[in-house]
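Notes to self after the Tuesday call (sharing in case useful).
The group wants a holo model before anyone commits to mutagenesis around the pocket. I volunteered. Ligand is adenosine monophosphate. Logging inputs and output together so the record is complete.
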Amino acid sequence: MELKLYNTLTRAKEVFQPLEAGKAGIYTCGPTVYAEAHIGNLRSYVFPDILKKTLRRLGYGVTHVINVTDVGHLTSDEDTGEDKIEQAARESKRTAWEIAAEYTEHFFADLERLNIEMPDFTPRAAGEIPKELVERIKSLYPRYASLPGHIPEQIAIIEKLEAGGFIYTIADGVYFDTAKLPDYGKLALLDVEGLREGSRVEMGDKRHKTDFALWKFTPEGARRQMEWDSPWGRGFPGWHVECSAMSMKYLGQTFDIHTGGTDHIPVHHTNEIAQSEAAYGQPFVRYWLHGQYLVLGEDERMGKSEGNMVTLSKLMEEGFDPLAFRYLTLNTHYRQYLNFTFMALESATEALKGLRKSLMDSEVGKPTPEWPEPKIPKSGVCKEFFKELCDDLNTPKALAVLWTTFRNKSISSKVKQELADFADRILSLNLFDYRASGLEFNIFDRTAGALYYSGDTDKEIVLLAQKRIEARNQKDYPTSDKLRDDLKKLGWEMKDTKDGYFLERHLKKP
Ligand code: AMP
Ligand code: ZN
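Result:
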């Protein structure tokens, strides 16, 4: 089976051809860690997770990098304004390092809650943590403290660009001269000439409107919390050069796939391409994948700066299963807008519960622990399901295959089990975790005793159920019916199955 991906660079769905047989490198622009990620940001990490798990199923050895932007992302894409992290530090009277460390850890926790597998590398852009803060950061935020910094790698790229004559220096920093690169703006299909003719007012001393900062200087007489020496002066790296340095370090100067949100197409990714290709004279990335926005109502993009953020922690405080949010994102194709409402999340919660319950009703109890990797399905429902994912990660259609299969009474439990096993290793919705949807159950086998326990069902309940089975076996139907009613009064539904019986209790939303 081939994997087709929509490549922003060519504006077409293309068959994925790896640079090196059997291997795939993916770089995903990471969060700017000055605040908690909102659920729009998090949407942009779900589809690379599906991509990675799909590639793996196809037999690829995947290397995935998500960076941490802990310095250099300014409040304006025009290379003006304050560094978002320094600004958050000033406003909260904390150190920039603590802010970055706290929200990095928060981001990792969000990934875990959403069953997004941790990437192989999570490099961060800033330099070493200052000596006086190291111990405190280590004890409070050990994961952040263990991440490597990348200032020398960024300086090395700027030096290469300097040698190639691509940079110039003005009062506030070192800039990339976009007029030196004939195909500048190819990703966004930018009307570069039109932009260059634009007003000079927004440009400051820059030579061209599209030129961008590679290194910004600390202003005369000022001190930043995060600043380093460089051959051009003391300061900090531009946001774009960070991603070029960290992606190429871990994946090579040309690599397979780069992902991010659509907002990055015209500036951030355009500039990553420009400086990387100018520095090394070869194509930077082969496939660019962009996830569309999560919005609130018509066109209102959720954004940290827009002040309309909903976070995963907030959803959890309100009693939602984080995986219901994952389900919600999977139910819309990653290249479509996702309009977030609480009603839609309620429906996703019910839908996920419905999927889990339909498995339970089909007596599909547990995932198969041993799973041969990789395994590409050759036929049947698994193939149908996988075919949708291989078509530019069409998760809504893949979910539809689950629904039609799990609900079809004429399809055997064995086939459903196979599909659930296969699908959940990619969709990661914990399909077998009935308790997460507030469903408690117990299935018994007449001969083998208890098969599955979802929880600690009261002994009293189990005894009543067993008594009822005995009565039924002895054809004492009045007693059997009475015991069934007794169980019902205690909140338990007892259903007979071909192998034994099945107890189900509906709990309140966890
Ligand atoms: P940031 O933390 O702002 O650097 O953004 C992290 C990721 O979230 C980037 O890939 C952005 O493109 C993406 N992003 C930002 N806002 C949204 C949104 N409303 N919906 C989907 N993705 C978004
Ligand atoms: Zn980036």
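Two things stood out.
The chain has three domains: 59-291, 312-436, 440-505.
Residues 342-361 form the longest helix (20 residues).
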